[in-house]
Amino acid sequence: MAVAGLGLAASGDSPLAGAAWAQGAVTAKHGRWETRCETPPGASQKQCAIVQSVVDDERPNITLVVIALKTADRKSRLLRVITPLGVLLPTGLSLRVDKTDLGRMNFVRCLPNGCVAEVFLDDKLLGKLESGSQATFVLFETPEEGVGVPTPLAGFKDGFEALP
Predict the structure, then answer these.
(1) Which of 13, 62, 64, 103 could, after both became Cys, cross-link 3 (CB 3.0–4.6 A)?
(2) CATH number, domain with residue 51
């Protein structure tokens, strides 16, 4: 099941898929979410996203980079998560907001520094993220072993609404 009934995003080849995106210039902060902007190669204007890096308290070697953005054409919204290498790809990345299980995000590719899972943000999923207090992303290293990484959502709504 895709998160909130959403399909796999086809933009995995975007320059924004890399962790380098998370290093763009910080232009604002909303809670633990940072607005970061960069101008992708060949683009005429900068693109911004809200980004949060999250380290698992019990396993400091597990760091996620959570990115929410509007595509350059402003026609789609994406939720993208970069996980460490070594995750079990077929199981995807589970997503819960507060106590509601929203399904799984599919991995679209792996890069030298991590694997990327993403989904389109439809109105229903965006509403859950904007009104929730905590998202939990569950990644699997084996079929039996899921690791939940809590991610605070305070500031998500204000940050996302402020994106150009």
Answers:
(1) 103
(2) 2.60.40.1880
* Of residues 76, 56, 55, 80, the one with CA closest to residue 66: 80
Those residues with Cβ within 8 angstroms of residue 101's Cβ, 6 or more apart along the chain or in another chain: 94, 95
What size, in residues, is the chain?
Answer: 164
- 133 CB-near residues (< 8 Å, 6+ apart): 98, 152, 153, 154
What string of DSSP letters covers 51-80? EEEEE-SS-TT-EEEEEEEE-TTSS-EEEE
* pLDDT tens digits along 60-117: 889 999 999 998 777 899 999 999 999 999 999 999 999 999 999 999 999 999 999 9
| Helix (H/G/I), strand (E/B), else coil: 63 | strand
For the chain, how many structural domains are there in total?
Answer: 1
Contact 67/49 with Cβ under 8 angstroms? Answer: yes
Tokens matching residue 86? 């070594």
Of 61, 37, 151, 74, the C-alpha closest to 105 is 151
Could you tell me the CA-to-CA distances from 100 to 40, 97, 109, 129, 136 in Å, in that order?
Answer: 35, 5, 27, 11, 10
CA-CA distance, 131 to 125, in Å (whole number)? 10
Report the distance separating Cα 65 and Cα 21, nearest Å: 10
Q: What range defines the domain where residue 41 resides?
A: 3-161
Q: Are 20 and 47 in contact (CB under 8 A)?
A: no
